[in-house]
Amino acid sequence: MSKPKAQSSKAKRYAISKLGLKPSTFSANAVKVCQELVAAGYEAYIVGGAVRDSLLGMHPKDFDVATSATPEQTKRVFRRSRIIGRRFRIVHVYMRDELIEVTTFRAPANKLQTKLQHADASGRLLRDNVYGKLEDDVWRRDFTVNALYYDTSSHEVIDYCDGMQDIKSKTIRLMGDPLTRYQEDPVRLLRAVRFKSKLGFKLDKETEQPVSTHPHLLATVPAARLFDEVLKMFIKGYGEPVFYDVLHYGLLEYLFPETDKAIKKNNLPAKKLIAQAMQNTDQRITIGKTVSPVFFFAVMLWPAIETLANTYIKSGDSPVNAWTHAALRLFADQQSTISIPRRIGVPSQNVLIMQPRFEKPKGRRVLWMLEQSRFRAAYDLMLLRSEFGIVDSETADWWTKLQTLDQGEKEVMIFGARKPGSKKSNTKKRTRKKTTKKKSSDAVHTAKKKRKRAPRKRKTKKV
């Protein structure tokens, strides 16, 4: 791999005290992992996002370690650890209640090491387990701002590629030739957009260009891997700006193809609704509330499912059946792009299948809906649809009021009051007169005879 021409191969070292950081800024468990590896005779540094976020005054949740020890050597140092991965072999070290991810320094492959590094026809790396030194590992990182190493012994940040300068200028810059690096791992297209939104940075021009010209590279990424990456993008507190960037760069087509088609048709206010849902999600995360991926996938697939359901309804299908068939079909189709686990996919489908029931609530079915575990998520989606004029406001108000009542009042409202959207009828109900057949006098006489009891015979004692 070629090094960026503008970057220096000589390391710069910055004392963390001059950067406004303290040793206690970093996870004590990650520091301990580094210290134990150093004591065992290896090099070890805290690397990547933890260093970057600490420099930006953010609080990292995950701490990664890079070391000169191979995965097998690392495993021998830590009893509670395991080697995972095939494409990139890494070690998970379990320290009390924290998991520290440990990777071995990587290097470019040479002719004698082709079995350890293998790419497909598109250039995507299928295996990359060629190990090297710290100086080599730097250039195998994705972005310059992620290629900073914290030395726990000297309390210094090591910078080989002017990552510190890019942090100051708030720039996301890819290491090496951008197109080659995206081909090696197309997920970097998504990571570039994610870091741009998360950090509030701009993309370097050379880094940005292939994002919009080569989104098709994402088609080669395994569906299971895209599931994890999509969750990192959309439900970490910056989903709204990520959504707009994904649309801007044409990436949505390779993540949610049917949703992308529905937005382009513009037959529903899908773009605005999804953006609003992402904004609501970001606000929940900001105030420390939990967010479920169930609601996220329901919202993202909603435009395509409602469009298809409307087609089924026009063909004579009932609304509930139409939404059910549309949800089952489109969730099945989505699996080829993003592999959604059943534990998330099935509840997401239920959130969507409940939508037509909000508009025509019927008796005990309303009480049944209120008891469903996914009612709240379904109700929130219905409110969003109401906000954008897809569901009438009377229906939304009816359901909102219903939830404020006690059980007795709910039953009066459901069974006693008129349903939302229905009209009072002026016509009186017709009462049907009961007609009884007149029995003939002979029949009455015989019936009376049958009712008469025969006199009991007295038993006589024998003398």
Assembly type = single chain
**Strand order, sheet with most strands:** 1-10-9-2-3-6-5-4
Which stretches of 5+ consecutive residues score pLDDT under 50? Answer: 1-8, 115-119, 123-127, 423-429
| Beta fraction | 5-15%
Distance between the termini: 131 Å
Percent of residues in helices comes to 40-55%
CATH architecture label name of the largest domain: Orthogonal Bundle
Characterise this structure:
This protein is an alpha+beta fold and 463 residues long. The chain folds into 2 domains: 1-175, 2-Layer Sandwich (Beta Polymerase, domain 2), CATH 3.30.460; 222-418, cca-adding enzyme, domain 2. 48% of the residues lie in helices and 10% in strands. The strands form 3 sheets. It has an 8-stranded mixed beta sheet. Strands 7-8 form a two-stranded antiparallel sheet. Strands 11-12 form a two-stranded parallel sheet. Helix 11 packs across helix 13 (293-314). The radius of gyration is 34 Å and the shape is elongated.
Give the helices and strands, then pairings:
Layout: E1 12-15, H1 28-39, E2 44-47, H2 49-55, E3 64-67, H3 71-77, E4 81-84, E5 90-95, E6 98-104, E7 117-119, E8 125-128, H4 134-138, E9 148-151, E10 156-159, H5 163-168, E11 171-172, H6 178-184, H7 187-199, E12 202-203, H8 205-213, H9 223-234, H10 239-248, H11 257-265, H12 270-286, H13 293-314, H14 319-334, H15 342-353, H16 355-359, H17 363-371, H18 375-387, H19 393-402, H20 407-416, H21 441-451
Helix pairs in contact: 7-9, 7-10, 10-12, 11-13, 12-13, 13-14, 13-15, 14-15, 17-20, 18-19
